[in-house]
Amino acid sequence: MRTIWLFTALVLGMSFYLTVLLSRQADYTLKETAAHFIAAHNNQMEMNINAYLTNVEKAASLLFGDEEYYTYNPDDTSLDPFEKQEIAASMADRINDFGILDNYTDFSVVYSNGDSIGWISKTTRAMYADTVMYDDFTRILGDTDQQWVFGLNGNTDHLYYLKRYNSRAIIMVSFYSLELDNYFQIPEQLDGMKVALIDDENNILYSSDDDQIGKALSDDIRTRLGTKTDGIVLTRDMLVTSNTCENGWRIVCTMPTDNMTRQTQAESRRSLLYVLVIIALILWFGLRRAKEMNLSAVDIVETLQTRAEHDSMTGLYNKTEFEQEAARRLAAPSENSLYTFTIMDLDYFKEINDTYGHAMGDTVLISFAKLLREIFQEKEYMVGRLGGDEFGIFAQFDGIDAREASHRIAGKLDMLRKSLPEVKFPNENIRISFSSGTSYPAPGKTDFEQMHKLADDLLYRSKRSGKDRDSSEAGREED
């Protein structure tokens, strides 16, 4: 009898020891694995933010394409009033063309004499009711040619981009900081993670915790990061990551490690209780829980991998994965294959957002993405969301010529256009349409960037021609 009790105590002790050991090992492995893929997820957020901010800077830079615009001086006495009016009207049209695809709150050229061309929101005008806007912008720019600005005159709801146009003019573009919500999606498995966008003075420009916007990054997080601006800091109680954007801003994410292991810790406590009840049950349960903890780590890995490749709102490929996959296919083209790239944009989407709100705008995007998946479901097509209300279709056709490929793409676009009236929205007044541009790789060329640029130009042709139409590389337009 004594031997049995000794044997039972020995087995219980070994079971207890192995359970604790396996639990700690599982926690450590899960932390390391989760940290790696959280970093990968944050790298994706960094690329998305860089792409968005670059698009803002690109929109402002496009105003330098016409010398008549960037040399214009409203105080120039050599121009008569009619000439000034003509130039100002032409510039206003150009600004409207550049800004129509994005939800900019302000897009204007501000002059030293107080004039402006473009649109300035009521919020921004109210900020300068008692001061001269141009003088303040000049003070902010100092000796630099461009600046990203947060907290302009105490406004923490908008982010502003200023760029010197000439010696008497400054370009000003702004957007709501809430526009960044789509770029800072947090997976459900990472409940408890907080995301913040900070400037070079550690001011919080955007945060998943709205109450933190406008405040300084906490001393605790700054101390944990030290001098590290890019990378991961994993301590016993906290995971902190930092990614630096191209304009110098940083994305800082924090997550208590307890959140990463909460499930496994609870399961370990239950396992220890079972150990004290019966040897057979504890042995069986220990093996089972170890397996479940491993599956939990695999589940997080697979979920983050999927989110790194797909747009969180629509489920389509995101911009980075879409462009990388298209470039990969073009770099190693299949024999007798022909490739096309179609870029499309919803017409008047900004008006839908402004009139019905961002929630309704998201509903429109989700419905349009669902329709794209249904119509372009064949294996030849790859569908992605390139940002905002912009979508892309990359096609690979085997054994057909360019004429047949063009016919197939045109047929799909026509089917999509005819299906739009059947889409029902909560507000029956909403009607959507789209414009598109389709390009093909030049003979002997396999550069996706060139295809993208040409398709983008063709999209602008469709927009300028009245919208709700398609332009192909051959120059053909269809209503």
SSE string: HHHEEHHEEEEEHEEEHHHEHHEEHEHEE
Main β-sheet description: 6 strands, mixed
Separate helix tally: 13
**Number of separate structural domains:** 3
| Ends apart, CA distance between termini | 92 Å
How helix-rich are the residues, as a percent range?
40-55%
Whole-angstrom Rg: 28 Å
Give a count of the beta strands, DSSP E runs of length 2 or more: 16
In spatial order, strands of the major sheet run 12-13-11-14-15-16
Detailed description of the structure:
The structure is a single chain. By secondary structure, the protein is of the alpha+beta class. It has three domains: 11-184 and 259-309, no CATH class; 185-258, PAS domain (Beta-Lactamase), CATH 3.30.450.20; 319-478, Alpha-Beta Plaits, CATH 3.30.70. It is built from 13 helices and 16 strands. The protein has helices spanning 2-61, 67-70, 81-99, 122-127, 133-141, 219-225, 257-277, 279-309, 319-331, 349-356, 358-375, 402-419, 448-464; strands at 106-111, 116-119, 146-152, 155-166, 169-176, 194-198, 204-207, 231-234, 238-244, 250-256, 337-346, 381-387, 390-398, 434-439, 470-472, 477-478. A six-stranded mixed sheet has the order 12-13-11-14-15-16, sandwiched between helices. A five-stranded antiparallel sheet has the order 2-1-5-4-3, sandwiched between helices. The longest helix is centred in the N-terminal third of the chain and has 60 residues, at 2-61. The chain is globular and about 110 Å long. Residues 475-479 have low confidence and may be disordered.
